[in-house]
Amino acid sequence: MRIGELSERTGTPRRLLRYYEEQGLIAADRCPNGYRDYDERFVDRILQIRGLLDAGLPTRIIKQILPCLDKPRIIHFSDATPEMIATLEHERDRMTERIGCLVRNRDAIAEYLETVLSNDRARAAAARQASAGASAGASEG
Amino acid sequence: MRIGELSERTGTPRRLLRYYEEQGLIAADRCPNGYRDYDERFVDRILQIRGLLDAGLPTRIIKQILPCLDKPRIIHFSDATPEMIATLEHERDRMTERIGCLVRNRDAIAEYLETVLSNDRARAAAARQASAGASAGASEG
DNA sequence: TCGAACCATCACATTGATGTGAAGGTCAAG
DNA sequence: CTTGACCTTCACATCAATGTGATGGTTCGA
Predict the structure, then answer these.
(1) A88: which chain B residues are within 8 Å (Cβ-Cβ)?
(2) Which of A110, A125, B60, B75 is buried deepest, with most CB atoms within 10 A?
(3) Is 3.40.50.280 the CATH number for B1-72?
(4) Which fold has domain A1-71?
(5) SS3 string of chain A?
(6) B50, B87, B101: best mutation site toward chain A, by most A Cβ within 10 Å?
């Protein structure tokens, strides 16, 4: 598929697909005429990249961890230098921290929403109650 | 405490503490001489802000969700407009997505590391084995 | 009273992820 | 053969978060 289709299917501006390639995150084939040529797997790959970018990882780091995430990981045994291992361990820990932070704050938001919404429900119930009482002739003043 | 101490205790440049204030994320008291004056609670607050920034949330959003995260949330019932509720629900969902993405990729990294490291252990064991065999006089060509 | 170590504001620079548009090549359809 | 919808590269603009430095006020101890 060409860049336009990949762009549509991933909701990613062409500009950024070229940018990700420039940053070494993806490597597209080229048609004889110079057009970029992507296969199906790029769809998930782009989505993964965008998710990680959105989660705060810079392209530099994404570039490093992406190769380790392919299914047949047999190939990558030899090129696992000690520095690479250290980087991966560090990023893994950083991601765990991020996850903890996001979970804490998301749960706090969820709890807040739960409180506010249940409060709304109670108020709505009270309003129904009051209107029922009013239609029965009573009023509280 | 003044800005220097808060900076040290949170590992955050003074420049950024002022920036966060400018963005409305925090509101510091002022001493008579104009110096910013922070109390203990700012330490956690700054750490929370930095965590969220690191997790990809922009200051604009952090500013919106922070007030909902304070412990005595009784005050915030009235100012919970429908738009605010919608924003919070949206951000909660976005955070859940981010969490999912981070968890998936972190686990993949962890699994990769596990594989590589266990491979290393096996190789080390094999090396020990070989050296023991060599010291016993045998060799495999 | 002087200097060091704080603090203040202001302003300009940088970096990474993006937006946008120009200038031009390719290709299928009319 | 031209038009339109793709594609290419290149370049400059923007935005948010951050770095850095200038200029000057406050406080405190020698």
Answers:
(1) 109, 112-113
(2) A110
(3) no
(4) Multidrug-efflux Transporter Regulator; Chain: A; Domain 2 (1.10.1660)
(5) CCHHHHHHHHCCCHHHHHHHHHCCCCCCEECCCCCEECCCHHHHHHHHHHHHHHCCCCHHHHHHHHHHHCCCCCHHHCCCCHHHHHHHHHHHHHHHHHHHHHHHHHHHHHHHHHHHHHHHHHHHHHHHHHHHHHHCCCCCC
(6) B101
